[in-house]
Design a protein that fits this description.
By secondary structure, the protein is mainly α. It has one domain: Orthogonal Bundle (Multidrug-efflux Transporter Regulator, Chain: A, Domain 2). Helices cover 67% and strands 5% of the residues. A hairpin with a 5-residue loop joins β1 and β2. It comes from Ornithinimicrobium avium. This is MerR family transcriptional regulator. Keywords: DNA-binding.
């Protein structure tokens, strides 16, 4: 993936890589998986605003599933 694309995704809030003290971006395994997801959605014709919404909804869905699991186990 090209550096300008990575900067664009970061400016749209799609990605927040860690940085070294010198400012170099450091991508985690989770960041790389998120980049794969972004690339797949772009291939499917989804724009950056749509990708942002999809990623946010997936995160909310994951949180709700976890909360549901915890509530089910604690019964």
């Amino acid at each position: 993936m090209a550096a300008p694309s990575l900067r664009l995704y970061e400016s749209h809030g799609l990605l927040e890589p860690d940085r070294t003290p010198g400012g170099t971006r450091r991508y985690s395994v989770d960041d790389l998986e998120r980049l794969r997801t972004i690339a797949e959605l772009l291939e499917d014709g989804v724009n950056l605003t749509g990708i942002s919404m999809i990623l946010r909804l997936r995160e909310e869905n994951d949180q709700l599933r976890e909360e549901n699991r915890r509530l089910t186990v604690s019964r």
